[in-house]
Design a protein that fits this description.
This protein has 210 residues and is mostly beta strands. Helix content is 2%, strand content 20%. The longest helix is centred in the middle third of the chain and has 4 residues. 22% of the residues are buried.
Length: 210
């Protein structure tokens, strides 16, 4: 897309996917080095330096990449599905991108991005997350067929690729090596979740979703 100019530093050379100032002025950006900032942030797309790529998504229905500097930026959506802004408030003081959760790396000081309830059940198979384009990682079972494509090849939204247990409100995905061992679950009385697996009862984490 075309660059709708916010401001640029006169005399500086154009640099695609430059780091974005934490607090971006709408009138003037003062800094060092090459910067060219577009009002619509299209300078943060299709980075020539692959080390700056943070996301793979569609922009105006075309395949594209978006720089890592747009992660949880929230000022404007670039990806058609707003992938760059799908962020989770893991704790009151730590927000991380969805695709940085459950990746065996600490992004919150408390490591809560790795101990969150979302990370308690993961697939055995790995995929390349669209927000972690250089890593193959397992994904939480809760991401499967949730209406949002997380894997580069879209396999997380293909129900036929993942084993299930139960029926009705207890229909759930299970790790691939446990598909022959569908066990009873605790039924929630109301709440957003229909059930809790026995192994997660009394673990100090609210899972029924009240």
């Amino acid at each position: 897309g075309a660059c709708e100019t916010r401001t640029f530093l006169t005399g500086q050379r154009y640099l695609r996917c430059a780091a974005i100032p934490e607090k971006l002025s709408h009138s003037l950006v003062i800094g060092h080095g090459a910067k060219y900032i577009c009002r619509n942030f299209f300078d943060q797309t299709n980075c020539t330096d692959t080390n700056r790529v943070g996301f793979h998504c569609r922009i105006n229905n075309y395949n594209a990449t978006v720089s890592k500097f747009m992660e949880c930026h929230n000022e404007q959506r670039i990806c058609d599905d707003a992938l760059e802004n799908v962020c989770v408030d893991v704790t009151p003081t730590c927000q991380v991108h969805k695709h940085r959760m459950c990746d065996k790396e600490r992004h919150c000081a408390s490591n809560s991005d790795e101990t969150h309830a979302t990370c308690s059940s993961l697939t055995r198979r790995k995929c390349v997350r669209r927000g972690r384009p250089r890593l193959e990682l397992p994904i939480p079972l809760s991401w499967l067929t949730d209406g949002f494509t997380d894997c580069m090849e879209g396999e997380d939204e293909d129900m036929s690729q993942w084993p299930t247990c139960g029926a009705g409100i207890t229909l759930r995905y299970v790790p691939e090596d446990q598909e022959e061992f569908c066990q009873d679950v605790f039924l929630c009385q109301g709440g957003k979740s229909g059930y809790v697996e026995f192994e997660f009862l009394c673990d100090g984490v609210e899972r029924c979703g009240f």
